[in-house]
């Protein structure tokens, strides 16, 4: 890991009317790291991702990507700095094939590419994700697992340095889950730093170097995964005070 984080936020707060969804959050992601972002439903995880990636404006605080302040930039400008994300519900272009969806994402990641470069880049990531046999299928012909793979592959085709995975492994069977965990580890190996939002503890323990735990928009724990999951405040947040 480098001395400075590749992505960092300080005292980030986001409110909706009278509801504080994210409350003074600090978070660092370092090069080569997989950081889990966990917490009960409604704890502020997705809102925080939306703020960090430019899809929502914050009320106060700062966000930096490789030292550049980005909290006032729109999502497409944040993406240009090497930040990509997936969505809980995949959002492919329904009228395009798998490979065409990935080509579109590759072009979005660098509009100055030549068409041949776009095709080569897309084919490389489709093969990386093991989707080459599905390259010419339409999205509506894919299983849930395959649609989530397509969502992930599209994000990779933008050539990010930071990747947010928002429940990309949720809803998969055990074999698919094992394959997904292995794929995320390979993504880390090619030099992409990752923030993972997941409820599946197997994923958190197998993948994450460190955790940040949210509850009611506040950070209640951070550190090694098992240490965080055994924290009394974290147990109380998930199971109630009587179990802490």
UniProtKB/TrEMBL annotation:
Residues 7-241 form the ABC transporter domain. InterPro entries: AAA+_ATPase (IPR003593), ABC_AA/LPS_Transport (IPR051120), ABC_transporter-like_ATP-bd (IPR003439), BCA_ABC_TP_C (IPR032823), P-loop_NTPase (IPR027417). Pfam families: ABC_tran (PF00005), BCA_ABC_TP_C (PF12399). GO terms for cellular component: plasma membrane. Keywords: ATP-binding, Nucleotide-binding, Transport. GO terms for molecular function: ATP binding; ATP hydrolysis activity. SUPFAM superfamilies: P-loop containing nucleoside triphosphate hydrolases (SSF52540). CDD domains: ABC_Mj1267_LivG_branched (cd03219). It comes from the Bacteria. PANTHER family: CONSERVED COMPONENT OF ABC TRANSPORTER FOR NATURAL AMINO ACIDS-RELATED (PTHR45772), HIGH-AFFINITY BRANCHED-CHAIN AMINO ACID TRANSPORT ATP-BINDING PROTEIN (PTHR45772:SF8). This is ABC transporter ATP-binding protein. It comes from Egibacter rhizosphaerae.
